[in-house]
Structure formats: C-alpha cells, structure tokens
Write a structure and sequence with these properties.
heterodimer, A: 345 residues, mainly alpha, ABC transporter involved in vitamin B12 uptake, BtuC, 2 domains, two-stranded antiparallel sheet, globular, B: 260 residues, alpha/beta, Rossmann fold, 6-stranded mixed beta sheet, 4-stranded antiparallel beta sheet, 11 helices, 10 strands, 25% strand
Chain lengths: 345, 260
C-alpha cells in the first residue's frame, strides 16, 4: 500500500507537472552526488563550509542591496536600473568618509561605524537629489518610461563616478591585519574574519530593523499600505510624496551600506562594481517575488548560495550562469516569485 | 430633511415629476454646482448639480456609464476638474488634493480595491485614522462593535476575507474618523443576494447614527426605497431628482431605469 501509493503519486506528478517532477529528480540527484563527494573526499567538509560561508555573505549582500530595489518597485512602480550605481556611489562615499576621518583623527580611531554612515548618507543624498531632479517630474508616467529613464540615470552616475575617481581597481584593505578566528569543521577549519562577521551583523541587524519598521511603526504600515494600493492610500490621507521620500532614504541607505560592506568583504572597489552586481541582485529580487522585501532577502540567499555551492559540480566560470539558471527554474514553478503577493512593502 | 420632503411633495405635484430645476439648496453639507469633470481629456460629467444635507441619505442611480462613480471620485479630487465647484460644509474643496480631503470630514469607500489586502484587519482600521497622531482605540472599538466579525478577524490579512467582510472592513476604515459624510460606491456589488439586505440595514444604521450618506447603487429599487432623496444621472447629466419614494413611484423613471 505504502510503496504503491508513493509510486502512484510519483507517476501522477510526472504526468501532471513534468517540470516540477524533473526539478525534484535533479535536486535529489545533486544532493546524493553532494553526499557522495563528501563521502569519497572529492569535496572536504571544510571546503563545503567555506562555500556555505561565502554563499551566506554574498546572499546577505544581495538581500540587503535587493531590499531597496524591491521597495522602489513596489512603492514607485518601476524597476530602478540605477540602483547598482547607487551601491557604487555609496561605496565611494564610504571611502571618502574613511579618508576624511582617517586624515582628521588618524588611522587609530575606531572609524568603522562612521564609514558605514558615510556610505549610507552618500547613497541617500544621491537618491534624493536624483528623485527631485529626474523622477519627481515624471512620477505619473508608466513604469517603462521610468525604467528607461533610470538606465540613463545609471549611465550618468557611473560616468560621473569614473570622472571623479579614475577607472582603476582599488584595493581597500590590508587583508593580513584583519582579526580572524578558525571554526573547526570535521576535516579542517573554516576561517571567519572580522569583515565577514561585521557583514553578517550589519546585514542581519538592518534587516531585523526594517522588519520592525514595516510591521510595527506607523510609517512602515503606511509604506505597506501605499505599496498595496496607492489610490486608497491617498484617500485615506497618507501623504504619498513623503512616503516616497522615506522609500528612497531607506532603499538607498541600505544600498549604500551594502556597497560598503561588499567592498570591505571583497577587498576591491571600482567604478562599475554596482552595475555588475545589479544583475544578480535583480535575479534575487525577481526570484523572491519582486516588490516583497522578504522575498528580496530570501532570493538573495538562494542566489548567493547557488553561486558558491555550484562549484561542487560546475567550473567556477559558470557560477553566475548557475545563479540565473536557478532563477529561471524557480520562475517556471512559481512565475510570480516565492513571496509574490504576500507581506509586500 | 424636512426640506427634502418638501421638494418631494412639490415634484409629485408636477405631472411626470422629473425636472432638474426642482430645487435650489442652501447651506448644504455637500454642494456640487455645475460640475464638469472627466479623466484626462475625456469629459464624463456635464453641468452636474448635487446636494447632500446634514444627516441626509442620498442615492445616485442611473444606467451603466452614466458617471455615477465619477461624481464621487470628483468629490475626492481623483478626476480632472473641468468646471464648476464642489463645496463641503461651506468650504470650497474643488481643488483640494485627494490626501487632504479626509481632513474636511469626508469618508469614501470606492467600489473596487477598497481595502489594503496585504495588511491585517486591525492595520486597515489604523490606516483609516492615519492623519491622527495616536491610533484612536475607542474608534476601533466602535467599528468592532458595529461589525463584530471584524473583531474576530482582527489579525487576519484583509485579502483573505469574503466579499461581505471586505465591504464591512472598507466601511469601518472610512468610519474611523467619524466623518460627517460617507461616500459609498456600490456597496452591494458582488455580494451574495442574502447579504445585500444586511448591508443596506447596516448603512441605515450608520445614517441613523447621524452620518450623512451619499451612495451610488446598481440595486436602484432597494436603494431608492431606503434613502431620503435620489438623483438619476444619465450620460453624465442630471435627469431626475426627487425623494426616493417619489422616484420609485414615477412612471417615467420606472420604465426607463427600474425595468418597469
């Protein structure tokens, strides 16, 4: 009974939903092969630990950066292609803040948190100025008009950054000097340095703070209300322009901080970094269900972990392709994304 | 109210009733005068006059596309204004922004999309009182007493509720600031037939508590039977105006708009 019942259900799934069935089979094969690799030593446990850690870092970054993208989509109703360059702008802003503060107080000062503020503040200032000059006059236009405009804004921002800070790739950290702890894994260790730890703390802290804001505060509830139904929000007396301003402040602030965290985690900084990162961030946001911040976080983790763990089966040059492939697979099964229509903001 | 009754008596006196110049109102709570309005360049309303007195229950009926909902949207500043004026409580609100209208003492329940589906029931009510600094617990309590099902569902996502419950939530949200005038756009639309009477009873209750009601309704017979006064709108223009009972009794109105 049990076996034949399972067999019947399996056959039903193949007949009714072959895509889902194939995905399940492939996933099971990959997991089994992963176990085999660990068992025969083709992949060591410590290597897997490093991949998981890297994937987590990348995923938290994608999630943090994706929140703003998802928010502008749900509240301003367009896909903002200049979001990546806000990330770059924030990272450079953080770097300037570092120079200024280090110049003023000497490199001994505890300047990490101030640099974080510098990167967030730079991205916020950029976003608010751009909104006033570019997006506000065309607020009522269609999403396509706004999207194409944002591509123009992206190019302008990127080449302004290139003009101000030349096109070199800068190293930003002395990697030898970072405090590091080794976490024992079964057949080796996984090292975790202070930069990685701070990325986790900052990202998780900001995500928790945002969750609190959206669920518990009047501003957050009004943001969710506006993303749900803008006309109804207006006739309820919610000042929509002020909500738009807060959306830019939160979205761009998180993008700037994410850019800065990425730079200290990755160790380099260059003028088109944000643009390159924008595509996987978009993948994360679409995968999670565009418009949902929880979807952005979850999608970020899925994309980040996929990019890291796919190395077990694919050449490292294909990690990005693997991430997009996962996105397509998820959208085949859930075309609206994982969190679509739920808990948006 | 007494004025409305007078006008009804007058209209009944003139054979065939229906004449748009029956009455010039004064000191109306809501006074729409010679309103031209539409969407973009498309004009829907031409020279519309409409009044609601303090505490009155007024219904707008008419065929599809007559511009009934457009009148309500215009009051809330959601259409392109092309001429005429709208006064509320003696104040000109013609050019007031939609997000400012609520400060005047008006509540509006649109026909569609009239709740925040991803917010909880309680959060929907909180949004109804957004313009206040503090969430008025007594107002929420009052709404829960009026619609007890909402109290049971207070933590539930509004979008998961039934049509009737959504309509109650939409009304509850609009009542949070205890408005002087409540605009209801087709409150019975999409409700199961056995819920329609209940909905109209609840609207009677809201009006009995002193809130003036301006309602657009497809269910014209039922609505005219319950309201103080009615307007028949055709092609974006006033056609008839009289007490509800007089309009129901009018041969012409019955034939043209109430299906005999």
């Amino acid at each position: 009974m049990g076996v034949s019942g399972t067999y019947d259900r399996g056959r039903e799934l193949f007949v009714e939903d072959p895509i889902r069935a194939v995905i399940i089979v492939v996933a099971v094969v990959l997991v089994l092969d992963g176990v085999r690799q660990l068992a025969v030593g083709a992949t060591q446990f410590s290597e897997l630990g490093v991949m998981l850690k890297d994937g987590l870092m990348r995923g938290l970054f994608f999630g943090l950066a994706g929140i703003g993208l998802s928010m502008t989509y749900s509240i301003l109703n367009f896909a903002n292609f200049s979001h990546g360059d806000l990330i770059t702008g924030g990272a450079f802003g953080g770097m300037i803040a570092t120079y200024v503060i280090a110049g003023g107080f000497g490199s001994e000062g505890d300047i990490g948190s101030l640099m974080l503020l510098g990167s967030g503040a730079t991205a916020i200032a950029l976003a608010l100025v751009i909104d006033r000059l570019v997006y506000k006059p065309i607020r009522d236009r269609s999403g396509i008009t706004l999207l194409i405009t944002s591509i123009g804004v992206a190019f302008t921002l990127r080449y302004l950054i290139l003009f101000v800070f030349d096109g070199s790739r800068r190293g930003v950290t002395q990697s030898g000097a970072i405090p590091t702890v080794d976490i024992p894994a079964i057949d080796g260790t996984v090292s975790l340095n202070l930069h990685e730890l701070s990325l986790v703390v900052v990202a998780v802290g900001l995500m928790a703070g945002l969750h609190f804001l959206l669920q518990r505060t009047k501003l957050g509830k009004a943001m969710r209300a506006m993303s749900d139904n803008e006309d109804l929000a207006r006739i309820t007396g919610i000042p929509t322009e002020r909500i738009v301003t807060y959306t830019w402040i939160i979205g761009a602030g998180l993008a700037g901080v994410a850019g800065y965290m990425f730079v200290i985690w990755n160790g380099t900084l260059h003028w088109f970094q944000g643009w390159i990162l924008l595509l996987p961030i978009f993948a994360a946001v679409i995968l999670g269900g565009i418009g949902s911040i929880y979807g952005a976080i979850l999608g970020g983790l899925v994309i980040g972990l996929t990019m890291s763990i796919s190395i077990m089966w694919l050449p490292s040059g294909l990690t990005r392709a693997a991430a997009f492939f996962i996105m397509i697979v998820v959208l085949l099964v859930r075309p609206q994304g994982i969190f679509a229509g739920r808990a948006t903001a | 109210m007494s004025e409305a009754t007078d006008s009804g008596a007058e209209a009944e006196g003139t054979v065939g009733g229906a004449n748009r110049e029956t009455h010039t109102w004064q000191d109306s709570l809501l006074a729409v005068r010679n309103l031209d309005a539409g969407y973009g360049d498309l004009q829907i309303l031409t020279d519309v006059d409409l009044d609601v007195q303090d505490g009155e229950y007024v219904t707008i009926v008419g065929p599809n596309g007559a511009g009934k909902s457009t009148v309500m949207k215009s009051v809330f500043g959601l259409t392109s204004h092309m001429g005429g004026t709208i006064e509320f409580d003696g104040e000109d609100i013609t050019d007031t922004q939609p997000e400012e209208i609520i400060y005047e003492g008006l509540g509006y329940v649109p026909q569609n999309d009239n709740i925040f589906t991803t917010l909880s029931v309680q959060e929907n009510l909180e949004m109804g009182a957004y313009i206040l600094d503090e969430v008025p617990q007594d107002a929420i309590e009052e709404v829960y007493n009026r619609f007890p099902i909402l109290r049971e569902r207070q933590g539930q996502k509004a979008g998961t509720m039934s049509g009737g419950q959504r309509q109650m939530l939409a009304m509850g949200r609009a009542l949070m600031l205890d408005p002087d005038l409540l605009l209801l756009d087709e409150p019975s639309a999409g409700l199961a037939p056995d819920l329609v009477d209940d909905m109209f009873d609840r609207i009677d209750g809201i009006n009995d508590d002193g809130t003036a009601v301006l309602m657009v309704e497809q269910n014209a017979k039922e609505a005219l039977g319950r309201c103080d006064r009615g307007y028949v709108l055709v092609d974006g223009k006033n056609r008839y105006e009289d007490t509800g009972d007089a309009l129901l009794a009018d041969e012409q109105v019955r034939q043209d708009f109430l299906g005999g």
